[in-house]
Model the fold of this input.
Amino acid sequence: MSSAQRQDLVVFGDHSVISDQIFQNGFHHLITITASPFTSPTWLINSLVESQILGRPYSLNSDSSAVQGHSRPVTVGSFVHEPQLFHNALGKLKVSPQKYKVVDLVTDLVAKSLGKPKNRLYNDILQQFPLQAQSVIVLEQPELLLSLLEGSTSDEIHSQLIAPLMKRCSVLILATNIYNDGEDTTRDSLELSRFTLGCIYKSIAIMSLRPLETGRASDVTGTLRITRGGACSPVHVLENEYLYLNQKETTRLFYR
Done:
C-alpha cells in the first residue's frame, strides 16, 4: 500500500466533494454516511466540513489539487460526540471556530427529554440549527432517538426532524450506523433498518464506511464506497470505492 498512489476524495462529476451546483435553485438535498459499529465516520465528517469551509479537504491529501469551492456556513450536531471533539479535530486542521458552529445534542439529553412531549423535543432540537440558505448541516446518529424516546418510529424521526432540518439548509449530511445483521427481527432493529433505508431513498449520494472483510491491516483501515442514492442529483455522482488509512492527524485515500 505504501507504493500506491494517493487519491483525492471526489464525489460528483465536476470533480468536487460537494458540488456548487447542488446549492443552486433553492433545493434541499440529503447526503447519507453509513458506518458500522467498527468504523468511525468522524474523520469523514471532519473532511466534509473542511471541504466546505476551506474549499477542499486538505487533511486527506494535502498535496492534491482538487477544485476549490466557496466557503459556506456549516453547523454540526451529534447525538454521540460532545462538541469539543469537533473543535479539537477542526482546530488541528487550522479551521477557525468562527467559520462553523457545533450544536451540543449530548449534554443532559436524557434529562431534557424526560416528561417532555416528543414534538416539543424535536422542535427544541431544530431551533438550535440556523435557518440559512446556501449552508450545510451535519447530523450524526439521530437514530439513537428511537431508543431514547419511547414509542418513537422511523417515520416520526424523518417527518419531525430530518425533513424539517433539510429545509433549514441546502445540504444535510446525515451519518448513521447500521446495526442490523439481517437476523435480528426485534421492533427496535426493524425501525433502525427502516430509518437507514429512508435516508438512502432520500439521498442524492451515499458514502459507506466498512471495515476490511479480511480483518485488520497495518496499511489499510477500511473501505469508503460512494454510490448514488434514491433521489435525483443535479450533478452526476461518481460511484467509486476507496481504501483508506487512518493515521494520527490525517487520512489517506487509495483506489481499490
The chain has seven helices and nine strands. The chain has one domain: 3-255.
